């Protein structure tokens, strides 16, 4: 029997945590609570409880960090999953900025119409 320790494969040492997290499903129509068991700037280990239908890509909101991280699932051993944080590309950020600009224009038009009805 080999008693040697398993070599560490992570690029950065993870800190043990016991933070509340929220997995935000794509499209924003569903979310589920989780516990962030360990964390680095590159990824995390999440305890998802009995939830087995976590998508491969989602956003993870961590209130203690005051941030939301785009995630990709790297491994699954329920009830836990390992995730890597994915960098948001400039194109995706530009797309979101454009969507926000269009929604603000639409909001202003609707407010004008409401004011005209008064």
From TrEMBL:
Which top-rank group of organisms is this from? Bacteria
Among the GO molecular function terms of this UniProt record, one is:
cyclic-di-GMP binding
* Name this protein carries in UniProt: PilZ domain-containing protein
Q: Which InterPro entries match?
A: PilZ_domain
Domain PilZ: from-to ranges: 8-97
Q: Which Pfam families match?
A: PilZ
